[in-house]
Automatic annotation (TrEMBL):
<feature type="modified residue" description="N6-(pyridoxal phosphate)lysine">
    <location>
        <position position="62"/>
    </location>
</feature>
<comment type="similarity">
    <text>Belongs to the cysteine synthase/cystathionine beta-synthase family. Cds1 subfamily.</text>
</comment>
<comment type="function">
    <text>A cysteine desulfhydrase that generates hydrogen sulfide, H(2)S. The H(2)S produced by this enzyme may modulate central metabolism.</text>
</comment>
<dbReference type="InterPro" id="IPR050214">
    <property type="entry name" value="Cys_Synth/Cystath_Beta-Synth"/>
</dbReference>
<feature type="domain" description="Tryptophan synthase beta chain-like PALP">
    <location>
        <begin position="42"/>
        <end position="324"/>
    </location>
</feature>
<dbReference type="Pfam" id="PF00291">
    <property type="entry name" value="PALP"/>
</dbReference>
<protein>
    <recommendedName>
        <fullName>L-cysteine desulfhydrase Cds1</fullName>
        <ecNumber>4.4.1.1</ecNumber>
    </recommendedName>
</protein>
<keyword id="KW-0456">Lyase</keyword>
<dbReference type="InterPro" id="IPR001926">
    <property type="entry name" value="TrpB-like_PALP"/>
</dbReference>
<dbReference type="InterPro" id="IPR036052">
    <property type="entry name" value="TrpB-like_PALP_sf"/>
</dbReference>
<keyword id="KW-0663">Pyridoxal phosphate</keyword>
<keyword id="KW-0963">Cytoplasm</keyword>
<dbReference type="InterPro" id="IPR047586">
    <property type="entry name" value="Cds1"/>
</dbReference>
């Protein structure tokens, strides 16, 4: 009996070590993402960079997270050769996890809101993943846990484990990579890094690394209109909720996720969806290729940070992230009929963003609210959403 157990343990360990080798080899093959410079004429002396995470094999920032989550599960002994993997996702994380599950020969289920973009659903299926839809986005957590239990599988749970699965001290994480790539630039230590929150794992990695390296860099987290993160951070309330699901895929959540570490965030903004979508279109024009809505939210944060620096007479650099390609949103954010059906008019915010880019004048109409760490007054509410 003991010999049988020993052999089974040895086989499991051998599979785990081989799986880790496969994941590490894939990481080396795909190398690092590019850091792109974006010229904003209205902000002289302020250099802006976007780290292009859309170039990963699965097309988004979530490629890094998916690899980390699988490594985390394997090294904890919870993912084995016959384990069924399950994830709760709005799309991009599931695309990346399906890719890695197929590399390892594992069955994968994605639990998705029914309104997830068709292109993401198709990408999950192309990588061999199975899609399990729910009508209410807030139920994806419980449904994923239930499905994992039914399949005797493993719930990857990006929202709980994103912040701990990633090595925030280094190991070529996104923060270390940004700083390395900036090392020969005129302003190698950015004044601001701007990154929206979905799981909260990337903003946690960035904020922790800033503190760990003793940098003067500040972290700004722009939050979509329908999301709980901003209010939770502002009010120090981990139980804050949003009664409506975010329309900016990849960021914004109906609750403050466990992976969101508010103590490392220096400033947050509340960004209207119309501004996020207008910004992704304007930035797409500047880059000559499409970027997604979450990158548009980041761009609003970049403009806010640049305006803060300009007002203080500061020069320096700002870094942010291209989260995914806008080609995934051809039938939504880049479709005027879809915008009309959603009741979203981007005409005015587009004018304001283009003016900010060319003149450096930033209108408060691009924000619902903004707040920096240390503010003692009430949040600066500029307008209420109609």
């Amino acid at each position: 009996m003991s010999e049988h157990v020993t052999n089974r343990h040895c086989q499991a360990k051998a599979w785990s070590q081989n799986a880790i080798h496969i994941l590490e080899a894939e990481g080396r093959r795909t190398a690092d993402s590019h850091l792109c410079s974006v010229h904003l004429a209205g902000f002289s002396g302020i250099d802006v960079y976007f780290k292009d995470e859309s170039i990963h094999p699965t097309g988004s920032l979530k490629h890094r997270l998916a690899r980390s989550l699988l490594l985390y599960g394997i090294c904890n002994g919870q993912i084995r050769s016959d384990t069924v993997l399950v994830e709760a996702s709005s799309g991009s994380t599931a695309v990346s996890e399906a890719y890695y599950a197929r590399l390892l020969g594992l069955k994968f289920y994605a639990v998705l809101p029914r309104n997830t973009s068709k292109s993401k659903v198709e990408a999950i299926r192309q990588h061999g993943g199975l899609c399990h839809f729910v009508d209410e986005p807030a139920t994806i957590y419980d449904e994923a846990a239930r499905l994992a239990d039914r399949e005797c599988g493993y719930f990857l749970d990006q929202f709980a484990y994103a912040e701990r699965a990633t090595d925030w001290r280094g190991n070529n994480n996104i923060a270390e990579s940004i700083l390395n790539q900036l090392s020969l630039e005129p302003h190698p230590v950015p004044q601001w890094i701007v990154m929206g929150a979905g799981t909260g794992g990337t903003s946690a990695t960035l904020g922790r690394y800033i503190l760990y390296r003793g940098l003067a860099t500040r972290l700004c987290v722009p939050d979509p209109e329908y999301s709980a993160f901003y209010e939770g951070w502002r009010d120090c309330d981990p139980n804050s909720v949003s009664l409506r699901a975010s329309r900016i895929e990849g960021i914004g959540r109906p609750r403050v996720e466990p992976s969101f570490i508010g103590n490392v965030v220096d400033a947050m903004l509340k960004v209207p969806d119309a501004a996020s979508i207008a910004a992704c279109r304007v930035l797409s024009g500047l880059l000559s290729r499409r970027v997604g809505g979450s990158t548009g939210t980041n761009f609003i944060g970049v403009l806010w940070a640049a305006a803060e620096m300009k007002q203080r007479g500061e020069t320096g650099s700002i870094a942010s992230v291209i989260c995914d390609s806008g080609e995934r949103y051809a039938d939504s954010y880049f479709d005027d009929d879809w915008l009309s059906a959603q009741g979203i008019d981007i005409t005015h915010p587009t004018e304001l963003i283009e003016r900010a880019v060319s003149t450096g004048e930033l209108s408060p109409d691009l924000f619902l609210a903004q707040r920096q760490r240390g503010d003692t007054d009430t949040p600066k509410l500029h307008r209420q959403h109609a």
